[in-house]
């Protein structure tokens, strides 16, 4: 049984391992292992994970069964969009998918931002499992980001939004 809780610094090594495993399982076939390794090296350094952990306008959650971290979620208030929370990470260990862990993390994240009216995320168009998950949970496609600017991945993404309860 996995329980969702706030991540702590002692979780970061296991969180990074889960993200590496999940990223390779999700994206190797789409972009190749080398590109995925480059993304991981940039996105999930210990310093980058710790910066997410200490951010005040954010929530970093893990699903924990007492021994293992089975999933991770990270969302933060947008710095540019009013009353909008950005869902940056929602990953479940490939061997544990389709057991409700992602749903439970997502449900908790939805309640963590009382000032937010909208949750927004970007998802890769070819990531059919994630797209289906988000559509099942009330998200609709509102646009597209080509991610071609300097320093971006060059990988296009779909932009999804969902109104949050009570707004």
TrEMBL record:
InterPro entries on file: Acyl_CoA_acyltransferase, Bact_Acetyltransf, GNAT_dom
Pfam family, one: Acetyltransf_10
Gene3D superfamilies given in the database record: 3.40.630.30
Keyword Transferase appears in the UniProt entry: yes
Source taxon at top rank: Bacteria
Keywords of this entry: Acyltransferase, Transferase
Residues annotated as domain N-acetyltransferase: 2-165
Keyword DNA-binding included in the entry's annotation: no
Name of this chain's protein: GNAT family N-acetyltransferase
